[in-house]
Amino acid sequence: MEEQDANAQPISSAAMRAGSCSCSIAPLSFATVLALSACGAGKSEELILPGGIPARTNLHEASTLPPESVRTVARRDYGWRLIYHPARAPASAGQAAARALCDLESRSVQRIENIPRIDPYADYGAAIIDIYCV
Hints:
Layout: H1 13-39, E1 48-49, E2 53-54, H2 59-62, E3 70-75, E4 79-84, H3 93-103, E5 109-115, E6 127-133
Antiparallel strand pairs: 1-2, 3-4, 4-6, 5-6
């Protein structure tokens, strides 16, 4: 027979139940939270670009340039960077694209800078412009 310590106190059945349940509550509650968050109609936050433009906006289309002329439209801290093929776009397409992109943010065009190509043969004929909005 086992010897009992004289200072040991008996464990009540309620304490045993609480002790045995505490181990399984955490994984169960975590699984419940995951299930509810995946299935529930919780708050969905749409990704927003700087300037308040929803990330789902088709920036190539918003530039108003013909699709075959646009290479890249990127939002920057100062405004926009546009890489396009001027030969495949109408005259003054850069100015029109600048107005359209700044209008997405309800701002006007401050200036347009032509950026020299580091490797002009990488995408022959493409031009890079930085569009500053105010």
